[in-house]
Amino acid sequence: MVRFFTALFFIISLILFYSVYISPEFFPYVGLVTLTIPVLLVINAILFFSLLLAKRRLALLPLIALALGWKFVGVTFQIPADHPSTSQESLSVLSYNVALFSFIRDNNTEPNTQNIIKWVQENNSDIKCFQEFYQDFSTPSRNAIKLLGSEMGYEHTYQVIEGNPKNKSYGMAIFSKYPIVNEGRVFDTKRNNGVIFADVKVNKDTIRIYNAHLESMSIRSETLNNLDGIKENYRETLGKLKRGQFTRATQLGILEEHMKNSPYVNILMGDFNDVPYSYTYFTLRKIMENAFESAGSGFGFTYNKVLFFLRIDNIFYEKPLKAINFKTHKEVDYSDHYPISATFELDSPLRKKTPFEDQ
């Protein structure tokens, strides 16, 4: 019986470890299956040590499974380490889903608009990317472009997704201490998701900054606020999870093609609405580095609700950039996402590799 279950978990592990490379466009439920990968790693670890203590050769199977699945450990947890810079130049970036600057806590009746804006103003990052950005030209306290941009010495690009661009609207924004020489929109869904970009002139180099907010699950916040809500609506929740996986795979194809055609080194950050054990994450991981994996520590969870163990906000980047610091700002709990930031070492001149150099 032990032999059977060990072999069974070994085969299941191999299938699931490979499934992160299968697009949900071809198998819609693959994104739900991969969520069990952390459980499989724990099971294989228990099997390995149990069989090892029993001096069974069968311990080789879970050992092989752990070796093949080790990459999932790295995307889950990082041991704190120093990453000293060897360059005098650096670039700091921030990504934050600000939830329209008015996220209301369960026990509060007042929005946290001013708290978020004040924190962002005090954050000194060179480049700041915001998802679910709210702009109100008619109310000085909510004129975020002025409060975070011109008053703080930042240039900006703001792409409206819905609303009146001259009055009240929401969309996505990039703010930069450095000159923005080009800007644009990769796509948007006419709701609250999309990807925008800005080409930023950093000294003698130009870097393309992508701000991403991929398709969300469209699950009501009250559903995620307690486990009973999740249980009661599990069928609806599963359906939305499946549709979200499928849509993100389509969006990812558009984004990947756009980044391939970029003439500059790319930094991609934002709210990806997907966990590290996903097609989205591993597709990007094949072509870019992840700042959490390079310079993060701990688990780096970024979701601020009952499902606190989710890391769905990321900062990806291309070489020759080098991440020397990454932080999840868990002390900033004004939104349903925590802000994340990274610092990159700059070795000028930055040169984008051609596809042939990566082969």
Automatic annotation (TrEMBL):
<keyword id="KW-0234">DNA repair</keyword>
<dbReference type="Pfam" id="PF03372">
    <property type="entry name" value="Exo_endo_phos"/>
</dbReference>
<keyword id="KW-0269">Exonuclease</keyword>
<keyword id="KW-0378">Hydrolase</keyword>
<keyword id="KW-0812">Transmembrane</keyword>
<dbReference type="GO" id="GO:0046872">
    <property type="term" value="F:metal ion binding"/>
</dbReference>
<keyword id="KW-0460">Magnesium</keyword>
<keyword id="KW-0540">Nuclease</keyword>
<keyword id="KW-0479">Metal-binding</keyword>
<dbReference type="GO" id="GO:0006281">
    <property type="term" value="P:DNA repair"/>
</dbReference>
<dbReference type="GO" id="GO:0004527">
    <property type="term" value="F:exonuclease activity"/>
</dbReference>
<dbReference type="InterPro" id="IPR051547">
    <property type="entry name" value="TDP2-like"/>
</dbReference>
<feature type="transmembrane region" description="Helical">
    <location>
        <begin position="29"/>
        <end position="53"/>
    </location>
</feature>
<dbReference type="GO" id="GO:0004519">
    <property type="term" value="F:endonuclease activity"/>
</dbReference>
<keyword id="KW-0472">Membrane</keyword>
<dbReference type="InterPro" id="IPR005135">
    <property type="entry name" value="Endo/exonuclease/phosphatase"/>
</dbReference>
<protein>
    <submittedName>
        <fullName>Endonuclease/exonuclease/phosphatase family metal-dependent hydrolase</fullName>
    </submittedName>
</protein>
<keyword id="KW-1133">Transmembrane helix</keyword>
<feature type="transmembrane region" description="Helical">
    <location>
        <begin position="60"/>
        <end position="79"/>
    </location>
</feature>
<keyword id="KW-0255">Endonuclease</keyword>
<dbReference type="InterPro" id="IPR036691">
    <property type="entry name" value="Endo/exonu/phosph_ase_sf"/>
</dbReference>
<feature type="domain" description="Endonuclease/exonuclease/phosphatase">
    <location>
        <begin position="94"/>
        <end position="337"/>
    </location>
</feature>
<keyword id="KW-0227">DNA damage</keyword>
